[in-house]
Amino acid sequence: MARKTDRMSDRSYKFMVWLFKPIDFLMPGFIDKRVSKFGIRKGMTLVDYGCGPGRYTTRFARLVGEKGKVYAVDIHEIGLEIVREKMVKLGLDNVEPVLAKGYDSGLLDHVADMVTAIDMFFSVHDPAAFLAELKRIAKPDGVLVIDDGHQPRVVTKAKIAAAGSWKIVQESGDHLKCTQLN
Asked: Domain range spanning residue 48?
């Protein structure tokens, strides 16, 4: 039996990137307002898992500063190429694009102070495996910031609970903050 893939087609991906342009133009402060609530601090190491074309990555890079680090992880090379272009254009040297293989990011264990999964969790076909990978790459006191994307909050919460690797410690209308279960 063929495994469902979490990776969208190149055509769909390019359409998504194109669609973000008018959204970002019409709502220029939306992303900055969202990330201001995540608790990102200078010097942090952050993993932007499912970074797409880097809409959040650029904000994260500025917030963690020169002494911080952002790993922009995605399963789609098109998004990572766009991230690379943005980093050069914006002069951001603290971002490392990473091509994931399935749910395996290839990152070292316990590298991240914070892992974010923004607007992508709804498309994950194996939430337990995905959340286990996020736990592996987060420091023991690391935080996961995750949103619902295109699924009801009750579904997001059920997937997190069933996976058994994270507990929700804070909930807003915008996102959930989680810490690791032991």
From this structure: 40-180
pLDDT recorded at residue 35: 94
Handedness of CA 47, 48, 51, 56 (dihedral sign): negative
Region 27-32: mean pLDDT is 82
Residue found by looking up tokens 């990102």 in the block:
40
Contact (Cβ atoms closer than 8 angstroms) between residue 69 and residue 60: no
CATH of residue 169's domain is: 3.40.50.150
The 10 Å CB-count burial string (b at 16+, else e) for 15-43 is ebbeeeeeeeeeeeeebeebbeebebeee
Please report whether residue 17 resides in a domain: no
What pLDDT sits at residue 17? 63
Alpha helices in 27-56 (DSSP H): 30-35
- pLDDT digit string (tens) for 8-19? 777 877 767 666
